[in-house]
Amino acid sequence: MPENKSESKQTTVQHMAYEPYTVAMGPQHPATHGVLKLDLELDGETILECKPTVGFLHRGVEKLAENISYAQCLPLTDRLDYIAAMANNVAYSVAVETLLGIEVPLRAKYIRTMVMEMARLTGHLLWLATHALDIGAMTVFLYCFRERENLLDMFEEICGARLTTSYTCIGGVRQDVTGHFLESLHAFTDEFPSRIAEYETLIDKNRIWLQRTQGVGVVSAEDAVSLGLTGPTLRGSGVDYDVRKHMPYDAYPYVEFEVPIGSKGDVYDRYRCRMEEMHQSNSIIRQCIEALPPGPIRAEDAPDLVMPYGPQKVVEADATFSSGIIKLVEDRKRFIKGDVYVAAEVPKGELGFYFVSDGRGVPYRMHIRSPSYIHIGALPFLCKGQMVADVIAIIGSVDVVLGECDR
Amino acid sequence: MEPLEIAQKIRERFPDQVIQVEEHRGQVGVIVKKDRIVEMLRWLHDDPALQLNHLADLCGVDYLAKKDVRFEVVYNLYSIPLRHRIRIRAEVPEDDCRIDSVTSIWMGANWHERECYDLLGITFDGHPDLRRILLPEGWEGHPLRKDYPLDGGGKRWSGYEEVVEKSKRLRQHDFYGMYQDPTKKAGLEDARE
Fold first, then answer.
1. What's the pLDDT score for residue A262?
2. Do B167 and B159 form a contact (C-beta atoms < 8 A)?
3. Which CATH class is domain A60-305+337-406?
4. What residue spans in chain A does CATH classification 1.10.645.10 cover?
5. A343 touching B, CB under 8 A?
6. Domain limits, chain B
7. Longest Cα separation, chain A
8. Does 3.30.460.80 match the CATH number of domain B3-149?
9. Closest to B55 (Cβ–Cβ): which among A54, A58, A228?
10. Residues in chain A with pLDDT values less than 70
11. Is the confidence metric ipTM above 0.90 for this complex?
12. Most exposed: A102, A131, B38, B68, by fewest CB within 10 Å?
């Protein structure tokens, strides 16, 4: 009898042994935050290998940019990270101004810093909403969208658009902010810290939340730098790298803020980093409102859409003015040969622009270093050896937007 | 460290590799030969005085008819602990369109190099998985080359017809997921009449 028992046991074990098999997650999947496809090779529930496929949303932004002027490229940047388009606008403008050597008026710098931090809040709120929804906390989604709606309304007030803003321009911002906008934003910043506390009461001590996030998707500081991670995803691993501090642009040298840093490098620490960042963004917005100086909002010599191609045409009266002859003088000094790489800290991480200028009013080459692209490239490393349910938590915690990834 | 000092150090260490040092808006680019690129970048990464550990960006540039050497692979390096940056620009000629991969130094270079291969057609030797990434497999040409027309030259991607056929087929499924052949359906209606 004992022999028989062991035999039957053996057959069951053989029956239970699975071959590794592949599951395609996406491209149509609610937790991939866009059209991202992951081929997961599974052994039971453990991931042996994760192969991301991207490019479903590739629009050739870099190729398009080579055929239009610097000013015309700006609306294309809205479509990169469409969740926080303001931040992309600012990043692009800062890069072009560095290339062309344009000094922006102080008021415009403050306004830009303000809208960039507002964009960071919208980005982080949407991240928190969807991340919590993926893990199973439905309520947070509704709460986050309440505040995000307020911010989008304020975007609408200053530029007329909620998502594809195109608010900044090269050399400043398109329109000045109104007193009503500043008042409503000030009221928002008064209230917002209590709202963050509200989200935290919902999930921060929640046992399910902690179990789903702590110790999941761990990446060490060294590996995180090697993988090229940036933004809160990198800072969760304890690396102090924030473009706003390391290479300050706009009004960031004039405002005080701290860079929150995690220690363990798991999903929970990345979550904490972003939550703390929302507090810091709120404080930066307040400082900008209070210190907003008067003055012009655009540099006078900045190129804009009125000059689609080539050199700036300056109208100059002839010496014999009485004759009524007015001649056009070409101003080519702005466009000189050279290349720059300028980065800015957008909600997802370091958004860099590498420009090569050949002396025309058109970028010879524009390369976008998008954080989401690099972060998705790191997914095979992060997901290896994890459980299949944790993939969703990991994707949520690195915070990707496929519009930015595929460009 | 100032970027020009770093450029000077590179020149001292690799005198036969550095072709030129260019400065624009305070940013320094060192144009180098591609032969010892991995050795050079590994030294920049590991040297305690430099510690350029963050590969901020890697991309290719096509200088068609603008320079003697057609392509350049550009490495934007940044040191997180020491807070300085430098740009290395490796020249890649058109007739020998390949360069050594730096994935052994930075894991994150993997996708950067795949993108560069996909859009500019520069081959990276020693890359673990060099495939197209943003464009579908079977795409002809490399769009970011300057001789590639903006509209693609009127050519269609080879998989286009297949995708259209598939979408047509899928549209014929009715509410219950049953496949209905449009020709047969027409026949049924005829019979009813």
1. 87
2. no
3. mainly alpha
4. 60-305+337-406
5. yes
6. 3-149, 159-193
7. 121
8. yes
9. A228
10. 1-18, 302-335
11. no
12. B68
